[in-house]
Amino acid sequence: MEAYAALNTTLIPLGTGVRIPHYWLILDRRADIDVDPKPFFKQRTHNFYFYAMYPPCHMCFFTRLVASKRSSLPRDSGDLITFVFSFLLLALAIAIVSHHLHRRGHSARLSAVVLFLASTFLGRSPQTPRSAGATLKTLLALWMLGTFIVGSFLQAHITADISAVSFNLEVEDLEVFEELLDAGKLLPCIDYNFMLYALEHFQTPFLKKLASVISTRAKDCVILGGENGCHRRVHQGSHAYVRSCCSYDVSVAFQQGLRKGRGSLQMFHRAVTMLPNLPERRQHRRLLLAISESGLDFVHKMKAAPVSFDEGNLLVPHPFSNYVSVFAIGCISAILALCCEVIIFCMCRKCRL
């Protein structure tokens, strides 16, 4: 610390009666470096916070997505509709075949209409004429394969359309947030100290209102040190998550199923480490090397690359198996129906399998 003082920098150790948070000491240029002792560690370590700036960042709120259109199917039954629908039509085809067998005997054939409908749905081509050439057989085989794929896709698409749920923001903008806040139906949630300092530092009317609500109901609004505490409360519908909304923060909240509301509460800067901005960089570099060799702990904030996503999309991430299972069940049921149709057709023709 004496070496840093020799570099003509302002050094303020925390815990010396200074009540102003080190964030604002740095941002207001009243200090270049803050030294934060850690008495709760057994070894003697210090944290060094260096002056620098990020690009401006906004403070906003995050809320959950609510379903505006419920599924028209019972819960956990969307994947079974294709299976049930396929075998209902298969049972209809079997009933027609049984009726013809009972009425005309074993040598009776299915009518052309029933054969065409069953083959179109089940993905089986009509009976190929014996005199057909290789071109006709190839075309019929391609028609059978295409009908099978298209039929399975349509079944999966209809199932997804019936069982899909539409999502919208529960709290769309700041006006709705303020109305719910005044009515006591929604509370803000903060999970780290920086937002508390920001609410005390900025003097906008809405932030003053948030600060008063948080001060009166601190136990319900402030969750420090808890892992995903605000996320759970936002998903319960009782809170709105107030925090910075830079690109990385928005992407992390999006992965947790939260969505940024429209509007900004405040714009601010953040302190990070940026060594070229400090005076006398060569002496500072040698001093950093000496401090690192002494075993002291450095605290700095690295700029993380945001996760790419389409912010205009309201899709909630679901497991990929939810989408594949519908198509897989449709394919399996179509294959089973095709096998049953072949067996029934062979029984009608008195052929051997």
TrEMBL record:
Keywords: Membrane, Transmembrane, Transmembrane helix. The keyword Transmembrane applies. The chain crosses the membrane at residues 48-67, 79-101, 135-154, 323-348. This is Ionotropic receptor. It comes from Haemaphysalis longicornis (Bush tick).
